[in-house]
From TrEMBL:
It comes from Pedobacter endophyticus. This is WxcM-like domain-containing protein. Residues 7-133 form the Sugar 3,4-ketoisomerase QdtA cupin domain. Pfam families: FdtA. CDD domains: cupin_QdtA-like.
Length: 138
């Protein structure tokens, strides 16, 4: 049986090199294993701050460092993974049922997130102890 933490993966996005500047893109069901219902970005994070600190019951995400770098810390309640993102042509696929937070943001970093659901507060678990004790919404 595959553990939820093992579903986390780095997705290499297309990279078109050009002397005038490079281009990368993503397409749902091709590079992203879900239909994209929402996108959002995180920026101007003050030094020492972290973002996230929740899991989703349904939502899946692809997280990309469009600029700068940051670390994504992930757990299924049993194992912990730390993934450093610092290239705009790599995305981090995070399935539902995984607790995540982001930290160690570099100056002027920009995190772009493609999500499988529209915003729904009821989809969030924001209490880490409850997440660890109640099953991981698998």
């Amino acid at each position: 049986m595959i553990k939820k933490i093992d579903e986390i993966k780095i997705v290499k996005l297309p990279k078109i090199l050009d002397d005038r500047g490079n281009l990368s893109f993503l397409e749902e069901y091709k590079h992203v294993p879900f239909e994209i219902k929402r996108t959002y970005w995180i920026y101007d994070v003050p030094g020492g701050e972290s973002r996230g600190g929740h899991s989703y019951r349904i939502n899946e995400e692809l997280i990309i460092a469009l600029s700068g770098s940051f670390d994504v810390i992930l757990t299924d309640g049993y194992e912990v993974k730390r993934v450093s993102l610092n290239r705009s042509y790599f995305g981090l696929y995070v399935p539902n049922g995984i607790w995540r937070h982001m930290e160690n943001f570099s100056t002027n970093s920009l995190a772009f997130i493609a999500a499988s659901t529209e915003f729904d507060e009821a989809d969030y678990e924001r209490d880490l102890d409850k997440f660890k004790n109640n099953g991981k919404y698998i």
